[in-house]
Specification:
The chain is α+β, with helices and mostly antiparallel strands and 551 residues long. The chain is extended and about 85 Å long. α5 runs antiparallel to α6 (160-191) and α14 (466-475) packs antiparallel against α15. β2 and β3 (348-359) form a beta hairpin. It has 15 helices and nine strands. Residues 420-545 form the NOT2/NOT3/NOT5 C-terminal domain.
Length: 551
């Protein structure tokens, strides 16, 4: 009979813990869904996990009692077990949402439709990325160890073991960085589909062996690891090239930059090109027909040349046709840039660069309206003529004039200027204190015109109710009233928990007291639900105790 009463008492205590645990689980569940940022969600999720583990232990105990023949009425036990299992299902939902929150539903749906080749490529790419990250982490560890050993060797010179260790770590760092460079090259080639996946899989085992065992004393490195991949012969797709179909200026200009031809010494005054020079330009094979617009991409190299010269461009010589020519006849514009370079003996070596730009006559007439000549007689043969066009130095690297902004660019510029006039102020982040009278207004005479006497003393706050003190503490942050309310609460044996940001008070003497914590039953004030609650078996760690002496 006594055994049955003892068993029934254990069952009652277990069911009571289940009820309290489910209630606590529900509270944390609500806080999790009302959390404002990711840090709070992670904290509440960890609390939820702790609570569900407690409930699982109670469920195991209940299952033992349900399977026992000593208990006849098992209805209440079965109901509590189902209640715990319901909370476990809810926790699984939270856990699933946390793991898949970074991916959209569309992406999860499409994951099954990826073809095997693409999936294999993604797997190899992920492996390469993870391997590079691991090697970078090991390099960071080696460098930190080298720094610490260097500091120790400075203090204590002549330590040969540490010097040998530093040299060994430097060798590891050098080898790791070599492998990181090669793996990054392989990853780029994989992204550009210039390296098959099977070739990368062949080196996977060797790379993993190096990553895991490179620090072993009997490690033998495979020096021919990347030889089969031909990484030295990088394909052209990995090198940034200019788009095809550019104007003739690109070829001429880059040829002038890359060739090491000797420069000719000339005077600094403008010299018009001779007829032989002009004839040579005209005798070049004609390029393919250009579009009706003039691409400014060809002039992007001119600022580079100007930045390496000592003098700005002096003039542009424009040999052009007459206006009466049909639009299909090409026009050649020769830009003469006088580029100077430092020379010995205080002299200047200059070189003359003629850049030929090929574009249609309609564009030439728009850009250089002053260069056209009046039409000659119909019977006269058409002779090319030269006219000078001066470029003001203020145009800088835009000899064709400023490029007009689009509507979107003008709108963005206007919005940026408007934003500068409404810059945020640090006071914008402060909480609005509705209970502090910023702008006093006149009141009726029978109202209090001044605060009550001695209202700024601890004795006055000790006469207030506990709920009023909590209200002042949580809603008058950063004021003297909050300080006095905290002081009054401490005099009433309330203690502030810095982790949970709540006030706790002993309900009874603690069952366990150590130097680091005390455990027992506490009453705490829940500021979210605005009420006092009781917590049994709570461990109050002293490191979270706000124990400053409020003077």
């Amino acid at each position: 009979m006594a055994d049955k009463r003892k068993l029934q008492g254990e069952i009652d205590r277990c069911l009571k813990k289940v009820t309290e645990g489910v209630e606590q689980f529900e509270d944390i569940w609500q806080k999790l869904h009302n959390a404002a940022n990711a840090n709070q969600k992670e904290k509440y999720e960890a609390d939820l996990k702790k609570e569900i583990k407690k409930l699982q232990r109670l469920r195991d105990q209940i299952k033992t009692w349900v399977a026992s023949n000593e208990i006849k009425d098992k209805r209440q036990l079965v109901e509590n077990r189902k209640l715990i299992e319901t909370q476990m299902e809810r926790f699984k939902i939270v856990e699933r949402e946390t793991k898949t929150k970074a991916y959209s539903k569309e992406g999860l749906g499409l994951a099954q439709k990826v073809d095997p080749a693409q999936r294999e490529k993604e797997e190899v790419g992920n492996w390469l990325t993870n391997t590079i990250d691991t090697l970078n982490m090991q390099v960071d560890q080696f460098e930190s160890e080298v720094e610490s050993l260097s500091v120790q060797t400075r203090k204590k010179k002549g330590d040969k073991e540490k010097q040998d260790r530093i040299e060994e770590l430097k060798r590891f760092i050098e080898k790791h960085r070599y492998h990181i460079r090669m793996l990054e090259t392989i990853l780029r080639m994989l992204d550009n589909d210039t390296l098959p996946v099977d070739s990368i899989r062949k080196i996977k085992d060797d790379v993993e062996y190096y990553m895991d065992s490179s620090q072993d004393p009997d490690f033998e490195e495979n020096e021919f690891l990347y030889d089969d991949l031909d990484l030295e012969e990088l394909p052209g797709s990995l090198v940034a090239t200019s788009p095809p179909g550019q104007s003739l200026l690109d070829d001429d200009l880059f040829h002038q930059i890359s060739s090491g031809t000797p420069t000719s010494t000339t005077s600094s005054s403008p010299i018009p090109p001779s007829s032989a020079t002009y004839t040579t330009v005209r005798e070049r094979p004609p390029p393919p027909p250009p579009p009706r617009y003039f691409s400014l991409y060809s002039l992007h190299c001119i600022p580079y040349l100007l930045s390496h010269s000592l003098e700005p461009p002096t003039l542009i010589l424009v040999p052009c046709s007459t206006v009466c020519l049909p639009l299909s006849i090409p026009v050649y514009v020769t830009i003469k840039l006088l580029l100077g370079g430092g020379g010995g003996g205080g002299g200047f070596h200059t070189r003359l660069l003629f850049i030929t730009i090929y574009f249609s006559l309609s564009v030439a007439s728009d850009i250089f309206p002053s260069t056209t000549l009046p039409p000659g007689p119909p019977s006269a043969p058409q002779q090319p003529s030269l006219s000078e066009v001066s470029i003001p130095p203020s145009l800088g690297v835009c000899p064709l004039g400023p490029v007009p902004l689009s509507k979107d660019q003008l709108y963005q510029q206007a919005m940026q200027e408007s934003a500068w006039t409404h810059m945020p102020h640090p006071s914008d982040s402060e909480r609005i204190r509705q209970y502090l009278m910023r702008n006093p207004c006149p009141t009726l005479p029978f109202h209090h015109q001044v605060p009550p006497p001695h209202s700024d003393s601890v004795e006055f706050y000790q006469r207030l109710s506990t709920e009023t003190l909590f209200f002042i503490f949580y809603y008058l942050e950063g004021t003297k009233a909050q300080y006095l309310a905290a002081k009054a609460l401490k005099k009433q044996s309330w203690r502030f928990h810095t982790k949970y940001m709540m006030w706790f008070q002993r309900h009874e003497e603690p069952k366990t007291i150590t130097d680091e914590f005390e455990q027992g039953t506490y009453i705490y004030f829940d500021y979210e639900k605005w009420g006092q609650r009781k917590k049994e078996g709570f461990t109050f760690e002293y490191r979270y105790l706000e124990d400053r002496d409020l003077q």
